[in-house]
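User: Can you fold this complex?
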Amino acid sequence: MNILVLVKQVPDPEALVEIASSGKDLNIEPKFAINLFDEFALEEALRVREKHGGKVKAISLGGSKAIEALRTAIAMGADEAMLIEDEAFAGGDGYNTALALSKALEKETFDIVLAGRQAIDADRGEVPQMVAQFLGLPHVGVVVKLDISDGKAVVESSLEGAKEVVEVALPAVFTAQKGLNEPRVPLITGVMKAMKVQIPKVAVEDLGLTKDVAAPENSKTKIVRYLPPKKRPAVQLIPGEAREAAAEAVRILIDVERVI
Amino acid sequence: MDKVLVFVETRGDEPRKASLELLCEAEKLAASGKFTVEAVCFGAMSDTLKGKLLASARKLVRFTDPELAAYSPEGYARALAGYAAETGARLVLAGATGTGRDFLPRVAVMLGTGMVSDVTGANWFDEPMTFVRPMFGGKVFAEIAAPASPVVVTARPNSFAMDMPEGVSGEYEERAAGALADAIHTRVVRVEETKGDAVDLTEADLIVAGGRGLKAAENFKLIEDLAAAIGGTVGATRSVVDAKWRDQADQIGKSGKTVSPKLYIGAGISGAIHHIMGMDTSKVVLVVNRDPNAIIFNYANYGIVGDLFEVLPAMTEEIGKRRERG
Amino acid sequence: MDKIDAIVVGGGLAGLSAAYRLADAGKQVILLERGDAPGSKNVTGGRIYVDPIRSYLPGVIDSAPFERHVVREMITVLDEGSALQFEYGNEKWKKEPFMSHTVLRAKFDSWLADQAGAKGAFIIPRKKVDELLYEDGRVAGIRSGSEEIGAHVVIAADGALSFLAQKAGLRQPHRPENLAVAVKEIYQLDEKTIEARFGLGPGEGVAGLFMGSVTRGMFGGGFLYTNRDTISVGLVVGIDSLIHGAGGFDAPGLMEGFTGRSEVQRWIRGGELREYSAHVISEAGIGAVPKLYTGGMLVAGDAAGFALNLGLTVRGMEFAIASGAMAADTAVLALDGNDLSESSLSRYEKRLRESFVLPDMETFRHSREILDRQRFFTVYPRFMCELFDELFTVGDKPKEGLYRTARRVAKKYVLNMETLKDLLAARKL
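Assistant: Here's the predicted assembly.
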């Protein structure tokens, strides 16, 4: 059972994210982590391998910094890793990201592709399904349980809250949701191995794509500018004694805000 | 005129809210004269549902293929993308529901175009069209331009107004996509509905939360009473949970649940950052605290500086009175 | 058992500087950190003096991510509803080389971790060390979960509650009076706003101390440091005070009371709360320093009790960096000489004696017992505030002479035997 896992290096969930004064860039505190949902995907891949044998290979797309996410994958127990190195993909659109990944996947032999449900930076949740479509493979999204037997998978998906049990023949693409498993903390020896391993890098040209495939002018969608979230207006204090203030608060909630 | 396709999701006799919101927005596009709009839906359709949809779209197209009776990403994507290609659609819209977000990316690839997921705003008349969507869990928003055509978009529920004008009466058409059986490789074995009892904090519309200011576990009765009066759910801070006054399931905050109700009422809560991170996306925030310097006032729309032991029962009573008066 | 050269336990400043020095000397070293990242478990308010540590991190310390250089000290004595504030500034502090800088530990520690990583150290977070491994009566590695990792030397830099020093029999469990709780909040404000509010030039910073009723008469004090675009404020309160104090064990409550005071609000108002943390720190002084070495193991930083409570500040960062570096240097020599025996590692203590670490600890040997006298945090602040209150209050009654006022207020608070005892005790400071 050969399993490919798509992983993305993202800013740490607690990193500060601010809009640059130009409005066209983000200043992100340089703390990085492997995307939360990709950790579930990796863990599941390792569990499938432990049960059915085979190999787990982690593939990432991004700048040279993304190698750290792949090291985490190796530390957790992935057998191999590969980085498609191209800084431009940091701001690339879902379509070209999926295109590049699918070109890389075409060169691999695999039974299962696992990826996180979405990346916690761009929050798009598009790429794995697009990769599946580029490769002409089925996919099951938002997976909370994965059982493999006889060349097929029986999967629980919680797409709309309710649980759906879906059967699909392999090869197929699955996107991992929280609840699928509890990702392992890498062993110390795993980390030491991961730090030493040479992770191969390929360029987009090696995949038969043009060098500037991820450039904004070649993207189907592009970010024009960033906007801050709407700020709550300054607090309005409701004056008066307790009973009076309480009555006024209830009036506001019912008549003005109409929330109760 | 540019063609707009709106994929309509249904549940039983009801169109889903996210779909209806998009139909309302699409009606405005149709009214502008620049676009023609068609609602597209799959699977079985009762007369009731049909009636509702025909009052919400100038044209309704239903695909009758039996393979579309149950959801499959490949089948749905094939049918929708096929129709979009056939009609030369300029815009393909769907609600950013679990289903919409699951199969629209496949539609985009089939059409050789990009997509914009989970948008909260749109400038349909810009050239190219631009959209606004949240990133980083809502910490920032991005304005996205979509120069490729067609544009595939999923829109976040509650982003567009439900204001369908009276008198819309659409035409109805049935079609078949054909040859779907070979395209579908997933099979739904069964669907387990999740239990629908008490509203979970994360989905609750109304929340009343209490903190250390309540002084003792038994005083949470005041919170429970107010929650009951408004039909809301009880929440708590970490220190209250640590003190075992409330169950872990009630905890709002970084190590607990992230909530975004229509109304959050917080009493006796100072506003530790961990708690704020869990409730700052609430629409209306009312806080009651004796300390005018309590940090939580910085994150509130309305504040009462006062003793919660007087204010909460008074609010509960007042709501009762308003109810009596109707 | 296969052995690597060294395992450092704890990713604070002591552990990181030890890992840095070991890796720099070409040794194979892993650092295990319990938290999600190095520095994730600390709350130091954040001021570091450069001179004492320069020689331990040569070359790199100047590229450290400092926030602001301190040009002014600000002391605020608080009573209920009133406060006395004074400042000391020195023009020469505005010129390079700067004496001290404010730092944000999350940033500083992750920088130091990167430096150590670049030298080849393996920095591994989310690893709790459960046991020490022994071989021939010497420490020979650690067990973490299911893994046993052998090492020629283990450096315990696992913080004030050091479980390893205890495991190795180097010290008794801590007594509550030797520990304090530090609580810190970080507020974000615009860089320019901070400079305008404190009257600072670009890059300049303030270090502030608070004492008196902020801590409800408990042993401890408050601190404030200006960072580039944030302000760190916090409290240090003795654990025994917290346990026995009137308010019960309510560190968040104390913190709320503290940041709510107008004397604190004036600095942090409008700031957005970015971070909250609480942590146990050691403040026992030299009396609580454990045995610092045993065969195959050295103890550094807070784990070794290297923190000085000077009444108004708890100094620990320089001690951590210096002791971590000296532990590493001792280990390097021992590894080179292939002798990790207790006697070989005893050179660590000799190094510490020749540095500032142990002499400073010795000098302030009695500071804790003196400062433990409650009156320093209750009676004297109240005396100062009331004295000024009387001096500045003008009412409809005739005002008495300055001397009479001073004498009357002094008599009420400080002209008594207790003060004499405090004074006698204070001679040891």
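Chain C touches chain B at residues 185, 252-253, 256, 259-260, 265, 272-276 (CB under 8 Å). The two ends of chain C are 50 Å apart (CA to CA).
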